[in-house]
Structure formats: structure tokens, C-alpha cells
Design goal:
- With 421 residues, this protein is α/β, with parallel strands linked by helices.
- It has two domains: 17-57 and 308-419, Aspartate Aminotransferase, domain 1, CATH 3.90.1150.10; 60-304, Type I PLP-dependent aspartate aminotransferase-like (Major domain) (Aspartate Aminotransferase, domain 2, 3-Layer(aba) Sandwich).
- It has 13 helices and 14 strands.
- It has an eight-stranded mixed beta sheet, with helices on both faces. The chain has a four-stranded antiparallel beta sheet with strand order 10-11-14-13. A two-stranded parallel sheet has the order 1-12.
- Helix 3 (85-96) packs parallel to helix 9 (292-304) and helix 4 packs across helix 5 (141-148).
- It is globular, with a radius of gyration of 22 Å.
- Mean pLDDT is 94; it is low at 1-8.
- It comes from Solanum commersonii.
Amino acid sequence: MEGNLGGGVNNQIEVETPNNITIKGILGLLMANTEATDIKKVISLGMGDPTLYSCFHSPDVAHDAVIESLTSHKFNGYSPTVGLPQTRKAIADYLSRELPEKLCADDVYITAGCTQAIELALSILARPGANILLPRPGFPIYALCAAFRNIEVRYFDLIPGKGWEVDLNAVEALADHNTIGIVVINPGNPCGNVYSYQHLQEIAETAKKLRTIVIADEVYGHLAFGANPFVPMGIFGDIAPVLTLGSLSKRWLVPGWRLGWLVTNDPNGTLKNPKFVERIKKYCDICGGPATFIQAAVPRIIQQTEDVFFRKTVNLLKWTAEICCEKIKEIPCISCPYKPEGSMAVMVKLHLPLMVDISDDIDFCFKLAKEESVILLPGLAVGLKNWIRITFAADPVSLEEALGRLKSFCQRHSYLQNDHH
């Protein structure tokens, strides 16, 4: 044993930590760089957590369901590691409403939020020499999980001028016999895009051609307010197998409850292979799921949340997205190539040649935090250097205030403005 630890217990254990940037990591550094005053409170438009703002609150029925399950004293023990049967069934029924083939409870595995669903998906697919195709820009947890599992990451670009659609030619060029999956995030984080039925079908056809599967991240499912309605990727499960990842977090506005799922959408049975199912179950044995009483509340939460609650959330996001885009038009040195149609964030391009003393997106965000106490996410964190991600899931007053400060900052650091002096 001593030899494994590098020659004795007093020596430090040498392990290599992946050097990936994480959203929470960089936001923590930016927050430490702010200077809140009585006049300027810190406004964060960096994190996709709408609960930071009082205008976004979860439905009463969700709280009642959790209190009921907790006070019943029936759910203080372990749940099966794949999830409570009634929870799995409720989610299967909920997702089946829009699918041609009905899901059953056994297709659903309950996870601690969508992040654990990502970890579960990559862990069960990992094998020596494997690679995975990830969107750029995208959600950095995929690359971090891949690094821990020794899965090679290959990035395909999303095309801003085409509604951030997947560059399918790039996908075909990147894939080989070791490709374990193509990740598709829809509605899109960080871009705010919502893919059309046709584009999703083309992605499924591409996966079929490449003999791989689609990992469909639908954590922002149904949060669509533009021309394209939300279409679940599972509709195309008969073309190529689909692992659907989702959670209560965004649609029900309860990200801290950590209730997510991984679902096999696969009418042809590829993912129902007994060995594969056993692999998923064994991995669930390792990681355990969310708190049992939260799981037990899910059937009531799904069945009794009224449509008016969902409509209110979507209308509010549509309004704040509108504010965001209108205000950005007034700000020098930045532009928004695509008006968001879903999720809670938008990507904005920095025009550095127009700026004085700003070297890149990281520099921009750190100086903005220091000078204006506004937190935005540098694009580098989501794979797109010299862009920034703005989260518009905020109350309109705070959003307008933050964007007003962003405008002042950009004017101060703009060549055009400085030429006038």
C-alpha cells in the first residue's frame, strides 16, 4: 500500500485534478472581486438559478407535497437506488405525454439533479479509448465528467447565425467507432435556442448513420417562448437510441431539491440490453439518489401543478429575455446575434477591437465585477472565448439595473467614448 502513496503516508498523494473551468468556480472568483456598497448591491446574472429573485417562486403544491411526504414518516428510510417505483412511474407518465411510444417506470432512473444524470450517463457509457461529441458553446460539466472518466472530448460548433444549430458536417467528421454519444442541449444552455422538429430529426438521423446514441439534455424542457415549440428528443428514439436527462429544477423552480432523471428512450431495445441495464443499476448503487421524501413528493407535484404556473414562468422569461435584447442594442462593444427563444440565458459577443484596456472575456468580467458589482459569465467557461453569457432569469428591475451598469461600463471602456474626450 505504501508504494501506491508515493513512498509513505507523510508524502502527499499525487493525483491530477482536471483543470477544466467550472461555472461555479469562476462565479465564486468573480463574486470575490465585487465591491458591494450601500449604493450598489451586487447583481448576479451569472448563475442559472432563478430562485435568487422573488418573482420566480415554486408552486405551492410542490411545497405541500414535500411537507406531506416528510410528515407522513413513511419516507425516512433508503429508497431503491434507482428511485422509488411511484416516482419512476410518475416521471415515465409525464414524459410519455409527448412521445409516440409510452415509457414505463423501468425506463427511468432517479438522480440527484441533472448534474448526477450527466455523471451517470458518461460513467455507464465510458470504455477504454472512448470519445464523446460535445457542443461548443455548451455546459462545462460534461467535459469535467469526461475528464474524470478518461473519455476524450471532441467539440462540434453551434452556428450562431442559424439559431445555434448543430454543425452536422462537423459531427460526422469528428465521429469514429469509439464515439459513445452526441450531446444535445435543448432548449439550449448557454444560447437560449430551441431546436425545430426537423433539426432534431436530422441530429437523430446523423446519430443513426454514425451508429451512436444521442444524450439529450432537456433540463430546460418546456421553457420555450419563441417560434419553435419544445420538442423532446425521445420522439426520435426509434431512429437512434436516446438517453434523456432532465430534472424538476428549472420548470418547477426548485434547483436546490436535486431531483433529476436519466431515461432510456429506445423502442428498438438497444439500451434495454440486460447487461446495459445491470450496468446502470450497479452505478446507481454507488451514487445513491435524492432524498427519499423529495422523491415521494414527485407524483403529486407532477400531477397537481396547474398549467397557469408554467405559463406564468414562461411569460416572465419571455419578458425578461425581451428586456435583455432591447437593452443590449443600446450598449456599445457588444452584440447579440440570436434573440433567445427558450431556457434562461443568452450568448453575447464582445467586440474587443472597440474596447480600451480589455484583453479578453475574463478580463471584461473581472473588471465589470470590480467596477459595477455586476456578475456575468465569461464565454470561456462555456467554451466560447470573447463572448459572455447573460442569465435573464431575474426580476425585471434588477435586470434593467444590471444592464444599465453594463452599458456605463462599456461606454467607459469604449474607444468611441474615449475619442470624444
